[in-house]
Specification:
Methyltransferase-like protein 25; Rossmann fold; 11 strands; 347 residues; 2 domains; Methyltranfer_dom; globular; alpha/beta; 48% helix; 7-stranded mixed β-sheet; two-stranded antiparallel sheet; 12 helices; METTL25
Length: 347
């Protein structure tokens, strides 16, 4: 509701009637914008499965929106302006000014969206809530040892301002501004963690340490964890570590890093051995449960600064493109880990 209200407050004074949702998912915000304010909404989404489900949901629950909310499959890139304009013209037969939005725009999508806004003449308002910074595409990796590598990203740093500052120092960003830093930036804010009960803290520390032990086992033995299900582990199976491991080994494949994909029968044959060894590793580390919450607290003290660093880099880039932009808190931090929107209007 907060994002929909922000969109309306930005669009209404400019008499914008059409919204383009970049990365529409299942179309929740698309339907909300039509229902609350009567906007025409074009939802663009990379996944055809999501498009199909959004259309089924629309037909079942919101049939009155069929002429006003449209969904199209589109793999958005920074050079997708002509594609978007063509889809828009086909769906709504008009070339009026539009607003580009993105709710939880993952990884590079938020960067592509910014460049689309810059280049698309009809786009007058831009509202993006970026997330999953650690999924930004990597341009170069340099292996340091078995578990560590330098990482350099295509779209971070983004602004010339930050690039210049880095170039004027001896600071090697590949050693520090890596995926762990970006993961830290997209952790949930401290607000919710501060108000956890002791029981919830205990559950959290178990879940984090259990997952860490699973990862440690994989790394030590030359595996990577390949998901077989959308969720690798389920909190409902966190009552004790044996149950956790047993459940996890049905939802992950321990895939050898240097070999071809394991056959299903080989996976099953190795499960008992893996389970025994992982439990033994847990017994060597389970005394660290309290330390987990200490480290979590330290992470959360840094989270806001890390996210601000990423967002300010993007804000600087937009200003370098001649676009006035600002960061607006738009979500309740207790409900959504990503609470900030980058907002811009073309003059």
């Amino acid at each position: 509701m907060h994002l929909a209200h922000l969109v309306h407050m930005q669009c209404a004074p400019l008499n914008i009637k059409v919204i383009i949702d970049l990365g529409a998912g299942l179309g929740y915000i698309c339907q909300l914008l039509y229902y609350l304010y009567g906007y025409k909404v074009l939802g663009l989404e990379k996944s055809q499965v999501n498009i199909d489900n959004a259309q089924k949901r629309q037909l079942k629950r919101f049939p009155d929106s069929l002429m006003h909310v449209k969904y199209n499959c589109c793999d958005l890139k920074c050079n997708s302006v002509e594609t978007i304009e063509s889809i828009l013209s086909n769906e709504f037969q008009e070339k009026s000014n539009v607003c580009l939005i993105g709710l939880h725009a993952c990884g590079d999508l938020s960067i592509y969206a910014s460049k689309i806004f810059r280049d698309m003449t009809a786009a007058r308002v831009f509202i993006i809530v970026p997330c999953c910074y650690h999924k930004l595409s990597i341009s170069k990796r340099i292996k340091i040892n078995v578990s560590t590598e330098k990482q350099y990203f295509n779209n971070f740093p983004l602004s010339n301002c930050l690039k210049t500052i880095i170039n004027n120092t001896d600071f090697d960003i590949g050693s520090f501004l890596r995926q762990p830093f970006l993961r830290l930036a997209c952790q949930e804010p401290a607000d919710r963690w501060n108000n956890m009960s002791i029981e919830t803290h205990n559950e959290h520390s178990f879940y984090v340490l259990a997952r860490a032990v699973l990862q440690l086992y994989a790394s030590k033995n030359g595996f990577f964890l390949k998901k077989r299900k959308q969720k690798g582990t389920r909190k409902s199976q966190c009552c004790d570590f044996k149950a956790y491991v047993r459940d996890s080994l049905t939802r992950y494949i321990l895939q050898p890093q240097e070999e071809e994909a394991l056959k299903e029968q080989d996976v099953q044959l190795n499960l008992d051995m893996h389970e025994k060894d992982i439990i033994e590793l847990w017994e060597n580390h389970c005394d660290k449960l309290k330390i987990v919450e200490t480290y979590t607290g330290l992470q959360l003290m840094l989270q806001a600064s890390a996210e601000s660093f990423v967002l300010q880099d993007r804000l600087c880039w937009m200003e370098e493109q001649g676009l006035e932009a600002k960061i607006i808190p738009v979500m309740n931090k207790y409900l959504s880990p990503r609470a900030y929107a980058i907002v811009s209007q073309k003059k």
